[in-house]
Amino acid sequence: MHLIAIKNTPLPVALKFSTAEVEAMQRAVIRLFDHWGVTEAQAAILLGDIAVRTYQRWKQGEYGRWNVDLAARLSNLIGIHKALRLLYTQTERGYRWIKAPNRAFGDRSALDVMLDGHLTDLMRVRRYLDSYRGAW
């Protein structure tokens, strides 16, 4: 899904985030990537092909500007984490799931799917987890 900004057209409510909310998501995703064992280069791809140096600055608490695409990526990554926490009572199992081969993704891991780099790749993993969780 690509979003096109049209002048004077309000964004859907779900896509409106304050700077404080985005910075909180940035901090959370940094910790999440540590748990997932994501490299800085992989993090840069997952975050919309930002510069590795930009991600390194985030880790130092320098967050800078953000856009709707980045906020949507952060939101989806946190949604994936939340779904895994609900699915797995053992936190480490959820963290390992990200790198495990999965038949639903053609024996690729969720991380491999997300590293294709598009926002829709993150959404695909999140939708999969949400649908799996929805069966309860």
Can you walk me through this structure?
The N terminus is likely disordered. With 136 residues, this protein is mainly α. It is built from 7 helices and 2 strands; from the N terminus they run αααααββαα. The relative contact order is 0.14. A hairpin with a 5-residue loop joins β1 and β2. It has a two-stranded antiparallel ribbon with strand order 1-2.
Number of helices: 7
- Poorly predicted runs: 1-13
- As laid out across the biggest beta sheet, the strand order is 1-2
Shape: globular
Q: N- to C-terminal separation?
A: 28 Å
Domain module count: 1
**Structural class category:** mainly alpha
Kindly state the percentage of residues in helix.
55-70%
Beta-strand residue fraction: under 5%
- Series of H and E elements: HHHHHEEHH
Keywords:
single chain, mainly alpha, 2 strands
Provide a brief overview of the structure:
With 136 residues, this protein is mainly α. It has one domain.
Write the layout of secondary structure elements.
Layout: H1 19-36, H2 40-46, H3 52-59, H4 68-87, H5 91-97, E1 101-102, E2 108-109, H6 110-114, H7 119-134
Antiparallel strand pairs: 1-2
